[in-house]
C-alpha cells in the first residue's frame, strides 16, 4: 500500500527502490449481490482487540434499526457477546466461524461491510473481496484502508475508536441504502479494474523484466 511505502521510506529505504503493488482479486469468481439487501452490515475477521469491535458494538447498540452481523472467532468472542448483552443490543448477531457458500451469502446480502480496525491495516483482502461482491466498505480512517476506500465513491472512512462517529455512520447506512448500493456498484468496478489480477501480473512482470535488464547492464560493464 502507499501507506506502507511511506512508512518504509521514513525508515530510510530510498524511494526509487520501492514500488507499490496492491493485492488483487479475481472478480469473475465472485457473484455480486443486488440492491435487495438483507438490511444488515457485515464484519468478517478475527475477534481481537485491534480490530475495533468494541467500538463497533457500542455504536451498533445505538442504532437498533440496523442489524450488525459479526462473522469470525477470536479471543474477544465471549467479551463482545457480553458487551452486546449489557447494551441490550438485539440487533447484533454473532455468526461464529463462517466460510464457503455461507460466507458468500453473508457478503452478497449485506448492505455494506465494516472494517473498524484500530491498528494499521496494510491491504486487507476483506476490502477487496467486499468490492468483488459489489459491497461498499465502511472503514477506519487509518493506515492502508485510506488507500483502498474512496469516501463517497466506494464507501466511507470514520475515525478509529470514535463511537459517536461510528454511530453516525451506521445511522447513515440504516437510512440511505440506495446511496450505499450505488457505492457498491462502484466498488465492484474497482475490483474488476484497479485490483484485477491481470493488472497485478502485468505490473509485476514489468518490474521483473526491469530488474533483469538492470542486472544484465551492470554485468556487461
What does this structure look like?
This protein has a six-stranded parallel β-sheet with strand order 3-2-1-4-5-6, with helices on both faces. The longest helix is centred in the last third of the chain and has 24 residues, at 197-220. The protein is elongated, with a radius of gyration of 19 Å. With 221 residues, it is of the alpha/beta class. Helices cover 47% and strands 12% of the residues.
Task: Briefly summarize what is shown.
By secondary structure, this protein is α/β, with parallel strands linked by helices.
Roughly how many Å is the radius of gyration?
19 Å
Strand order across the largest sheet? 3-2-1-4-5-6
Low-confidence stretches: none
Structure annotation, total helices: 9
Q: Please state the structural category.
A: alpha/beta
- From the N-terminal CA to the C-terminal CA, the straight-line distance is 35 Å
Helix content: 40-55%
Number of strands: 6
Q: Per the principal axes of the C-alpha atoms, what is the gross shape?
A: elongated
Task: Summarize the main sheet.
Answer: 6 strands, parallel
Mean pLDDT, nearest integer?
95
H and E string: HEHEHEHEHEHEHHH
DSSP strand (E) fraction?
5-15%
Short key terms for the protein model shown above:
9 helices, 6 strands, 47% helix
Amino acid at each position: 500500500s502507499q501507506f506502507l511505502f511511506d512508512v518504509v521510506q521514513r525508515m530510510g529505504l530510498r524511494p526509487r527502490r520501492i514500488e507499490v503493488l496492491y493485492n488483487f482479486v479475481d472478480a469473475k469468481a465472485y457473484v455480486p449481490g443486488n440492491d435487495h439487501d438483507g438490511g444488515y452490515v457485515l464484519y468478517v475477521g478475527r475477534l481481537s482487540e485491534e480490530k475495533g469491535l468494541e467500538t463497533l458494538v457500542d455504536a451498533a447498540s445505538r442504532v437498533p434499526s440496523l442489524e450488525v452481523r459479526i462473522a469470525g472467532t477470536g479471543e474477544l468472542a465471549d467479551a463482545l457477546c457480553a458487551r452486546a448483552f449489557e447494551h441490550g443490543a438485539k440487533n447484533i448477531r454473532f455468526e461464529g466461524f463462517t466460510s464457503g457458500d455461507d460466507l458468500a451469502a453473508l457478503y452478497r446480502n449485506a448492505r455494506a461491510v465494516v472494517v473498524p480496525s484500530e491498528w494499521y491495516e496494510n491491504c486487507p483482502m476483506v476490502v477487496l473481496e467486499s468490492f468483488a461482491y459489489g459491497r461498499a466498505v465502511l472503514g477506519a480512517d487509518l493506515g492502508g484502508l485510506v488507500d483502498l476506500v474512496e469516501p463517497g465513491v466506494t464507501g466511507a472512512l470514520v475515525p478509529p475508536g470514535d463511537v459517536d462517529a461510528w454511530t453516525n455512520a451506521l445511522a447513515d447506512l440504516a437510512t440511505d441504502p440506495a446511496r450505499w448500493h450505488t457505492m457498491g456498484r462502484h466498488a465492484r468496478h474497482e475490483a474488476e479494474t484497479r485490483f484485477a489480477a491481470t493488472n497485478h501480473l502485468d505490473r509485476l512482470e514489468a518490474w521483473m523484466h526491469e530488474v533483469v535488464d538492470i542486472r544484465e547492464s551492470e554485468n556487461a560493464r
